[in-house]
Design goal:
This protein has a single domain (3-185, 204-312), classed as Up-down Bundle (Growth Hormone, Chain: A). It is globular and about 60 Å long. With 313 residues, the chain is mainly alpha-helical. The longest helix has 32 residues, at 208-239. It has helices at residues 3-22, 28-31, 33-40, 44-68, 70-73, 76-92, 103-115, 119-127, 134-158, 164-180, 199-206, 208-239, 246-277, 279-296, 305-312. The chain has 15 helices and no strands.
């Protein structure tokens, strides 16, 4: 194996691992929602605010990053490290405030803003190593995002019913990512930073293929993040119809982890196949299957555990 190939393998592996570790912040609070509701009697509005705050912050962070051109003007590794570290601190502050106060959703918004310096920036770093395998690079990084997003459910299951466990573990995980990302290399595919042009916004709408791709992505993300955010609540309530006591809660957390984490396998496989069979065809098939599952899972509420888990996975 050539030195370049060795550097590529090591760097992409490290970038993916850091992505997994940092993205644990995204659903750290969502994974603990059932425990928070039981202990603090959170209102439905506060439950939604804790969950949607990260998504809102991510949008804000992406807009700020795009307007300032941060990934092109700052070393992506440094931007990733700072974002992961600040996000870890904001997430850890949830342990010091009342989860039912207005401060908690604001901390989730701040965490989401920081995630804009992690996920897209990690993708940019991995893409710098692409050479005829861009689909695979994207698949690996999206798979890392998926596995990282699933990890709080595992932390929660291992920590029992204490809601502090997934939040603390996610912050420690993100701090480790902030340190390790500095050891990743940057690939040879580095283009000069383009000037920001506001006309790109209208171009993205006028260009029909790009417009359709963006709208398709919007619809899929609406479905996917709704499922990721509320899957543990759904499974917890569903399993309680079949399993008695705390066993239902633990089983729901493990099933939620398996449900989200299984997507990582599909991401890598799809990335590999996309370079060979076409991204559009593969995307249409994947979205059709995913949308069908989302539309029918409610019919299995309270049903046999294997059937519910298989439908969600």
């Amino acid at each position: 194996m050539s030195r370049i190939a060795q550097s590529k393998l090591a760097s992409v592996t490290l970038i993916a691992l850091c992505q997994v570790a940092a993205m644990a912040l995204w659903f750290s609070a969502s994974a603990a929602i059932p425990s928070l509701v039981a202990q603090f009697h959170l209102t439905p509005f506060m439950q939604a605010a804790l969950t949607s705050g990260v998504q809102a912050g991510f949008v804000i962070g992406c807009l700020i990053s795009a307007l300032l051109g941060l990934p092109d003007r700052v070393d992506p590794r440094r931007l990733f490290a700072v974002s992961a570290a600040v996000g870890a601190i904001a997430n850890a502050f949830l342990l010091a405030v009342d989860p039912g106060s207005w401060i908690a959703p604001l901390l989730r918004v701040l965490t989401g803003i920081c995630m804009a310096g992690v996920y897209p920036v990690g993708m940019k770093l991995a893409a710098s190593w692409a050479r005829g395998d861009m689909g695979l690079m994207v698949g690996i990084l999206v798979g890392a995002l998926t596995l990282g997003s699933a990890s709080p459910h595992l932390f929660n299951a291992l920590g029992g019913l204490d809601w502090r466990t997934p939040i603390a573990a996610a912050s420690v995980s993100a701090l480790a990512a902030a340190l390790l990302i500095n050891f990743a290399g940057r690939g040879p595919n580095r283009a000069p930073a383009p000037r920001f042009d506001p006309h790109y916004v209208t171009t993205a709408w006028r260009d029909k293929p790009l417009r359709l791709a963006n709208l398709g992505y919007l619809g899929h993300m609406w479905e996917l993040y709704a499922m990721w955010a509320w899957i543990v609540v759904f499974l917890d309530a569903s399993f309680a119809q079949r399993v008695v006591g705390d066993d239902a809660a633990v089983a729901a957390k493990l099933a939620a982890f398996a449900t989200v984490a299984s997507g990582a396998i599909g991401c890598v496989a799809a990335g590999f196949l996309a370079d060979r069979f076409g991204r559009t065809t593969l995307t249409i098939a994947a979205m059709a299957v995913s949308g069908t599952c989302a539309a029918t899972i409610g019919l299995l509420f309270g049903g046999p555990l294997p059937a519910v888990i298989a439908e969600e996975a």
